[in-house]
Write a structure and sequence with these properties.
The chain has 300 residues and is mostly beta strands. The protein folds into three domains: 38 residues, no CATH class; 109 residues, Galactose-binding domain-like (Jelly Rolls, Sandwich), CATH 2.60.120.260; 101 residues, Elongation Factor Tu (Ef-tu), domain 3 (Beta Barrel), CATH 2.40.30. Helix content is 6%, strand content 51%. The strands form five sheets. The chain has a nine-stranded antiparallel β-sheet with strand order 12-9-14-1-19-20-21-18-15. Strands 2-8-13-10-11 form a five-stranded antiparallel β-sheet, with no helix packed on it. Strands 4-5-7 form a three-stranded antiparallel β-sheet, with no helix packed on it. The longest helix has 13 residues. The chain is globular. It starts with a strand and ends with a strand.
Length: 300
């Protein structure tokens, strides 16, 4: 099975044609803000950590903390690194369904979603006529573990899977309409990742490890502070057998995607083989006509 990597397409406000995710309120110098209030200032989401009025958000202002992308952009956030301030988890959620209409300027040959809470998904891509690039609909199966009729009657519904990987072929300039629906509940998605899918060699997952890493944001209820904390993280290590030519191409792609997240998977639906994160350690060892590449992926 191959090692798949999606190089994410850049999705910003200009690429979002329409969405039912509400805009964040723009900061108003005359307004009074309570602790926990969030505002859009300079295209970034800020949260008040003290009561204030007329105090302009900024990295040097102790009344506000930068909590990353605007709400409607959270699902497309790909920036990572020590110089970026991110909550432990970013996600978009709203009652019943989340909808996006996007336009992407590059080929989209892979589309993944992570952190899903949904019963139904629909993706339509159109260039010259509706649905001519992709028409995908699917009901997310209920995989709650019911042991008897009482469990069936009283256990909370637990849809699965929480991730989705799709092979697609969507031409540049197409409109991509995405619906994430949770009937009679709260729809949620952490990451929507359209991009170009690259496949390399044969992968053998060495295993997963769990640990703690420093995060620059602390979330306590609805309050965000700048206190650092150690948060759980998961690291997956892959051994990838590739030809010498493939090794050069993979190395170039790793350098290109350095500093932003990507999707890593085996081409199967095994959760242990799929991650949304970034390559933290990378090593290539030539062995004749092939290279053995070890890639350690830190998932987000």
């Amino acid at each position: 099975m191959p090692f798949n990597l999606i190089d994410p397409a850049a999705i910003g406000a200009a690429q979002i044609l329409d969405t039912n995710v509400a805009d964040d309120p723009v900061w108003n110098a005359g307004a009074s803000y309570a602790v926990g209030d969030q505002v859009d200032f300079g295209g970034v989401l800020w949260q008040a950590i003290t009561v204030n009025q007329g105090s302009q958000p900024g990295n040097g202002n102790p009344a506000w903390v930068n909590i990353g992308p605007l709400t409607k952009l959270r699902a497309f956030d790909t920036l990572i690194g020590s110089d970026q301030i991110r909550p432990v988890e970013t996600f978009v959620q709203r009652p019943d369904q989340i909808t996006y209409s996007l336009v992407v300027d590059t080929w989209v040959t892979g589309l993944s979603m992570f952190g899903l809470r949904a019963t139904d998904l629909k993706i339509t891509a159109s260039l010259d006529q509706p649905g001519d690039q992709a028409q995908i609909s699917f009901a997310v199966p209920d995989r709650t573990n019911y042991f008897d009729v009482w469990d069936w009657a009283f256990l909370d519904y637990n849809p699965s899977p929480e991730y989705l990987n799709l092979d697609v072929s969507i031409a540049p300039g197409s409109q991509i309409d995405i619906t994430v629906a949770q009937l009679d509940g709260i729809a949620r998605v952490s990451s929507i990742v359209p991009g170009f899918l690259h496949s390399f060699g044969v992968v053998r997952p060495r295993g997963s490890s769990y640990g703690l890493r420093s995060r620059s944001i602390k979330v306590a209820g609805d309050l965000v502070t700048t206190l650092k904390r150690r948060a759980p993280s998961k690291s997956m290590t892959y051994d990838i057998l590739v030809s010498n030519a493939e090794a050069d191409a993979l190395n170039d792609l790793v350098l290109k995607t350095d500093g932003k997240t990507a999707v890593f998977s085996s081409g199967t639906r095994r959760a242990a083989m799929i991650g949304y994160g970034y390559i933290e350690n990378y090593d290539a060892q030539p062995q004749g006509t092939h290279d053995v590449i070890t890639a350690e992926v830190l998932t987000l």
